[in-house]
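Quick note —
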Amino acid sequence: MANFLGVGSSECYNQVTVTVMSDEKMLGKRLKKAREAKGLSQVGLAKALSVTSATINRYEQGIRQPDPGTLHALADELEVSVDWLLGRTDDPKGHCAQVTTIAAHRADDPLAELPEEARRSVEDFIEYAKRKYGKKEEK
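Predicted structure written out below.
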């Protein structure tokens, strides 16, 4: 056997093969679990992705692996992460679950109630602070 990952042993190669097969089975199991959780049949999922139901069946059986684009489409359609499908995380939403960012902004202008001279003074101070503490150009 040729040198594989720096080790010239077929035993090492077999271990790696078993690990990869394990991952393939993980993908199939999780794909089926997510599909069923969404209430989709293999035919329904296949139609949504423009593939055959036999293709979905082969993915679920671990006989065939989806290409990266199809893997992303599967994750999107099933509303799970690619990482979860691949067994990299136990959270179906994965590491990159959408996070809703809520920003608080004042509806009022805190300077509006100040006299014009005071407002200009605050604005001048802000400009001064930006110049003094702002990002310095590297030479």
